[in-house]
Amino acid sequence: MEKQHSRILIIDDDYDVLKSALVLLKRYYSQVEIEQVPENVIQKIRKESYDVILLDMNFQRGKRDGEEGFYWLKRILKSDRNAIVILITTFGDTDLAVRALTSSLP
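Below the sequence we write its predicted structure tokens.
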């Protein structure tokens, strides 16, 4: 199978999740980058363009409300209005999913 020529950025505080996603996605996509520190994301997207960004919704231990993900989503879209961001989380419910789907709409 030929790899897709796509650039993917994965942002998650859990290194095991990042490494697993990297190993899996590298089989199918030409460039996959990982970032464990969300504060580095804006600098990365200013330097490089990505076809898709996978963004975790919770970074601090004990946080499960997704607010950090919404914060970083706004920052990413402010920096690059055309960015395609997929929010990911281990902890979620229907209300959080609906909010995530509608949060980037104008």
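The CA atoms of residues 74 and 104 lie 8 Å apart.
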